[in-house]
Amino acid sequence: MFRYTHALVCRVPVAFRTRAEIDLEEARRQHEALCRLLRELGVDVVELPPDELHPECVFVEDTAVICNGVALITRPGAPHRQGEVDTVRAVLKKELGLPIVEISDEAAKLDGGDVLFTGREFFVGLSEWTNEAGARALAASFPEFSVTPIKVSPGVRLEGGQQGHALQVSEPRHLKALVSMAAPDVLCVSKGAASQEVLRRIEREASFSYQTLTVPEDSAANVLSVNGTLIHRSAAEAPETCKHLEGKPELQRRQLSVSELAKVGAGLSSCCLLVRRTRAARTF
């Protein structure tokens, strides 16, 4: 489970720095480090050129859901991102030989970052970017698995307001920013309220029982499980989490920095589409 042969990534465009106060060169170094690590773990990395018309193209996770050798092309909830799927569709079909499934319902919204596949079932976050129609489209595409919608509440942060009063500001979150897969049958969540609430909702609705890896920092809830290795945020970005994981020698771990990419709410999983291509897949 969670063994992959290929990963599709997209290089960071110059336009990416318009999304926030981004150190572009550092963002590119961090992205390249992810690609190197995936290759070290035995994954063949396919790199798409940067798309200057779509500043968020680096977050390829949102453009497709891949399971059992089939690629469902999503309908990103942010209208300005919908053009990103065309290149991804072509590469998945022509270079990786995957069968392609399209969403016909024009009312559907579905971001890959809201889709959590446990290896046994799907959970779909109902968020700013994904709606019930999107969840139904996923269920129709992968009828061999149960698909459970999970409401994603926005996170809350404190900011200084007028006269020094604190304001609560809601931030939309993808499901996989709050819960991800740390290993087969192991959910990774943070101690934060939003992450814990999603975990409770999943545990109420799940068809299977899962273990839980709970990390101290909210930003560390998004991890990657690739070919037996847990990839998590670096000690510079999540020091308490790294200390916590040091006490779990049974985990084979690698850490990465994604501080610049995270400035626009991205996590480790956002920057790659992981594929397990079978021998039956076509090549061109």
UniProtKB/TrEMBL annotation:
It holds the Pfam family DDAH_eukar. Signal peptide: none annotated. Keywords: Coiled coil, Hydrolase. GO terms for biological process: arginine metabolic process; citrulline metabolic process; positive regulation of nitric oxide biosynthetic process. The keyword Coiled coil applies. One of its GO terms (molecular function) is dimethylargininase activity. InterPro entries: DDAH-like (IPR033199). The active site is at 174 (proton donor), 271 (nucleophile). It comes from the Eukaryota. Residues 17-44 form a coiled coil. SUPFAM superfamilies: Pentein. Belongs to the DDAH family. This is Dimethylargininase.
